[in-house]
Amino acid sequence: MASGNEFMDTVLGLGLVYWGRKALDLPTRLPTWDRWLVRAWQPAAVIIVLGIVVGGPVVGWFDDLFMAAVLAVGAAVGWQLRAYRPAFWVGVALAPYAAYMLLGVLLRLTGSNPVRDFDGGGNLEGVLVFWTGSLFFLARSQHKTLAAEAQRRLTAEQEQRRIESQNHTLEYEVNQRTAALAQQTNALRTTLQELQTTQSQLIQAEKMASLGELTAGVAHEIQNPLNFVNNFAEVSTELLEELAEERARPTRDLGLEAELLADLQQNIQKITHHGQRAASIVRGMLEHSRQSTGERTLTDLNALCDEYLRLAYHGLRAKDKTFNATLNTDLAPELPLVEAVSQDLGRVLLNLFTNAFYAVRQRQQAGEPGYAPTVRVRTKHAGDEVMVQVQDNGTGIAAEVQQQIFQPFFTTKPAGEGTGLGLSLSHDIVTKGHGGTLEVASQPGAGTTFTLRLPV
């Protein structure tokens, strides 16, 4: 029977195989070699059994050969893994013990083993075993460190792939959102174009409505002088016929002829006066029908207020012969001229007067007992500005409506009677075009006052 020292190298070889596989990560890096090394326990078991049962030098040879085979395989594996850092330390760990074993095999061929004789206590071999184990531990630690680094790299790569996947997803979603926003933008652009077209049509309708009111006022205003001209022309024709008859008589009445001539002269003067009045109205109508150039001129607000007050009143009377109202004018006698576009201010005043007459007419039609429709215009010079107030005692405007009264397309009139652009355009003309202000104050059931202020 052999002692345990006879096959200690075999046990050590098995340990080297086990720890070497772990340190060098052979299952992953060299799976084919690893499968063969796993089976190394089979010859080792045979050697151990022979050592226990048979013993003797034959077993020692088998023991040394097994250990040499393990070292040789380790050298081959280390060469294949030379680029792997732990393989270097495994090689450094095995080199001294391999030299020790090689020297023992060579000396055994001579029939003696001075190395083992010298190391009778096993101290040198123990030191070598300790050396090998320590460096195997170092290689194992490096393997764990490298594995941890590899795991971190793998985690980082996975995180990078996850981020790239999220970026692709976000890019796709952004593209989808961009396409949706582009579609919405196109739809909004189309809607805006439709609104602009509608706005242009409504503005044109408002202009036509204002022109209609102005035309009606002018027609009513010009009708009076034309009636006078026609009437005096007919009377003058009759006078001329009487004068011709008188002159054809054998006995002429010179007194009657003189009286007829005096009447003719008076009629011709009246025809001339009313003809000039009609001509002035036509000239004014032509002036106000011209397109505004935007050029400012010195404007007499008193004359402008008086003219457009009458035009607005007669324009409404041309539509409703039964309507009558009291017109009060309180015009400052020394009101300074203001630089303004008279055509634009005329549109503003016409709109304010028209709204005032509409309000008093609505209250009159309500059948309120003792009600007398009244519209008042007042001008005043205060400091560096002039003020125009248009006041009526009509239906009034509710507080919540006053906040929206100057908004485009807002109207309190029934459908078909207003576009909601008159006061909005008037506000823009006064504030943006002339640097003034246009304010409203009203009490439902009592009346409304619009106050227009312009810088001098």
From TrEMBL:
Q: Which organism is it from?
A: Hymenobacter bucti
Coiled coil spans:
140-167
Where does the sequence pass through the membrane?
36-59, 88-109
Domain Histidine kinase residue range list: 217-456
Q: Which CDD domains match?
A: HisKA (cd00082)
Recorded catalytic activity of this chain's protein: ATP + protein L-histidine = ADP + protein N-phospho-L-histidine
Q: Which keywords does this chain's UniProt record carry?
A: Coiled coil, Kinase, Membrane, Phosphoprotein, Transferase, Transmembrane, Transmembrane helix
Enzyme Commission number: 2.7.13.3
- Which class of enzymes does this protein belong to? transferase
Keyword match Transferase: yes
Q: Which GO terms describe its molecular function?
A: kinase activity
SMART domains from the xrefs? HATPase_c, HisKA
Decide whether keyword Phosphoprotein is in the record: yes
The name of this protein is: histidine kinase
